[in-house]
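Minutes, methods subgroup
Present: GH (chair), OT, SY

1. OT presented the first of two proteins processed in the latest run. Sequence and structure tokens recorded below as shown on screen.
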Amino acid sequence: MLRATRLLTYTSSKRGFATVVDASKGFKVSAVDNGQPTSSVTVLLKAGSRYESKPGVAHTLSNFAFKSTGTRSALGTVREAELYGGVLSSSLSREHLALTAEFLRGDEAYFVDVLASFIASPKFTRHELNEYVFPAVHSESSAAGQSAPTHALEVAHALAFRNGLGYSLYADTQATGNITAEDVRELHTRAVGNPSNVAILGTGISTESLAKLFEDAFSAHKTASASAVPATPAVPATTYHGGSARVAAAHGPQTIFVGFGSTASTSVHALHALAAHLNPAPALKWASSAAPLAPAIPAGVHARSVLLPYTDATLIGVVLEGNDAGALKEGAKAVVSAFKDAAAGKVGKEELARAVARAKFQLATSVEAREGYVGVFGPKVLKGEVATVQSALDGVQGVSGTALSQVAGDLIKSKPTFVAVGDLHVLPYADEIGLNA
């Protein structure tokens, strides 16, 4: 109780985001300053894989981050960042590309200028594409292909959504053979040429200071004219399909994904509570959990719930890994039963309270990390919405048993998404675990 009181006080008094519009480019800027010794700035672009014109272009753009621009070379950027003690990184999701600088407090001007130079004047040279970018892309794609859980989620998205959100995050060798520097430039220009596609988030700095720094930085860089911005291709509305796939793999643990998706307007707060309810991870690593799934998940099977809310769709489920296919089958049956029980309103008051508390804690702790707050608040900032941790926590706190049952019931009315990766001689089919797929 003491911990919960402290957390609520902290989030209420210190955590908050205020959204403004940058006067020079129209990008939305949001930041929070809790007095920490380090700062970070993330530029979030609507340049995820769902927006690419060719397979793998978004992954390639992600690896072009912080290469040569109109004002600095890639080598110069790296050396200067190291002298400042900062870290530059990029990460890709199906909807967004995040470009991030993390640094000691007080070095904001330099790192904002680095980010602004890549936004305003990237060169996208052919020699960097072939010598540096493609090798990094191939390495990341190879590593993803060797990860059975990652492969399972990739296949699950392809089954669930087919196009758009179903496009892979990774570019294989065949895909990169068709990608040119101009393809990458086009995706970048489409994103930064429309202010509604860009959000700037910061920590350890005020919103007003961050907006002013970017305004000054953009004025120092030559940018493309509005006429040079290519037309944004129409992105069709997402449709959820679902389906079943079994993929042979000789490496990694046996892996199963069991989930459901939706494109309906669903309460994200209830989804968080449902994901927490389905999560069998114990509160103590060396002890069993009172979570409803824990007794039904056999020993030796690692399971975790996955919630992936997108702008116009949702995918939620459980990933199970293990070496014993028979145990995995029993664990997958338990997941299906848990979905059905939740839809039938068989979640007791104590189980609901546990799920809500766990969801709140997971949400609060996730936004303590940079990746978490960008993922949670970035889409809201893109819409121009004011976002706070407390409002998110209050929303989850208000989830009732009826709301949980409603969201689970709506999900299981759709076609399930089932993926098995590993030894197909022993892994189950969807109908063997209680799914009608």
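2. SY then presented the second protein from the same run.
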Amino acid sequence: MSTENLDISRRKLLGTVGAAGATGLALGAAGGAAAYAAGSQPAGTALASVGSTAVPFRGTHQAGILQPLQARGHLVAFDLAPGAGRKEAVALMRRWSAVAERLMAGEPAGPGDTGVALDAGPSSLTVTFGFGASFFDRTGLVARRPAELDPLPAFSSDRLDAGRSNGDLWVQIGADDALVAFHALRAVQKEAGAAARVRWQMNGFNRSPGATARPMTARNLMGQVDGSRNPKPSEPDFQKRIFVAAGGDQPWMTGGSYAVVRRIRMLLDDWEKLPPERQERVIGRRKSDGAPLTGGGETSELDLDRTGPDGKPVVPADAHARISAPEQNGGAAMLRRPFSFHDGIGADGTPDAGLLFIAWQADPRRGFVPVQRKLDRGDALSPFIRHEASGLFAVPGGPGAGEYVGQRLLEA
């Protein structure tokens, strides 16, 4: 065993307690919770615990869907190079899967590794791969393109940049260390070689593990608790809502999910002019703890029928929480796993900041689309956000032993 691998093994041993805690919280944290409690880690081992946590590359589902939110993230879309087709796509997915498996285990990317993450463990790294609708045209696999990949409808609030939308291939990278995340991004880009070129790339972040005294649902850049109503794996219909079941029209998608990816600019200057009470009415939840305006705690159900002394609904008719509630949309639900972004400040002092919205569902036609249509017609939050980029990707199930991601599609 190399000295480097021995060092990683020592960090894993030191971090056993922290890693076990993170694993135990993984399912419950699917609702956006930062899945680390500062008090759960022995003194002096917090950094080792964060660094030593590894996520398996292989499994029923790809990594990066059910895991807790990570501190750093990169989203990148590729287009196959001119003249590249199915043969090149097979070779590319083999390379990408191999490098992702090594990196997620805390190992070097391979010969010529840059050494960027040399001193770190895997740090909860996940690398997730998906295919856009155009991928099937480029590879001659149109007959295997799922109907769920039909283009998303246009929404009145869209201000989409085509150059930062869609793509043949999509890669989501997340980690609890910025250098580990960048290292994976660089490795994925290098392994693309001549087969594919970057179409767009976006960077995101979340609260760092251990920054709060207890596990908490993340806040977005508006200061709002974001993810309170995410479906939970403990719910009996969770798998049906989020993952593709066996026996469908496209067997290669069994265990997979569909990712809707949107860059949502937050108009923070306008939002921050609102008093907190007005912000709460726009959202329909208390800013302090994410609880519904109708009372209780963050996980309490919204009482949409409750009225105040003035006879008006306590949760306003156009409140974001009311309009997006599953009970208002025929049970439509998505597992949201976002990153915040900040890409600088304009000459006029306006921050280019917001949310890299990533929503997972078994069928976007029954998840994202009906909810977004309803939001598009009268969400009080709409004047304070702008959808600037969009993508829809089929993310196949996790690879089995000896498989690469997408093998059941590309070699069926």
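Chair's summary of item 2: Residues 1-46 have pLDDT under 50 and may be disordered.
Next meeting: continue with the remaining queue.
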